[in-house]
Amino acid sequence: MNRIKLPCAIAAATFAAQFPLLAQPLDIGGIASGRQVAATICANCHEISPTNYPTTVIAPKFDDIANLPSTTALSLKVFLRSSHNRMPNFILSNDDTDDVIAYILSLKEK
Questions:
Q1: What averages of pLDDT result for each successive group of 10 residues across the chain (110 residues)?
Q2: Which of 7, 57, 83, 84 shows its CA 20 to 30 Å from the CA of 74?
Q3: Which residues pair with 52 in a beta bridge?
């Protein structure tokens, strides 16, 4: 039995070392950077903070999105990577996506 434990432990450590990002939370991006990306790309339709009001209110406020019970890092990542009927299909880099997700989640009421 001990002969099996050591190779399994080595294999698990080797596997984990190959995929370190799988162990990281999806909201590893920077909040300030995410707010900047949102101000540049999303603010035409979304209110991204109390001081930013879009000229045409056609999308939910980021505060409201953050406080939906279904809002998680994973749900936001899936949403941002999917095509949308009413929202333009922006192509964000992985880092920008993670940063915007971090920013939105930072708005969640504790």
A1: 51 47 51 92 83 69 94 95 83 93 92
A2: 57
A3: 49
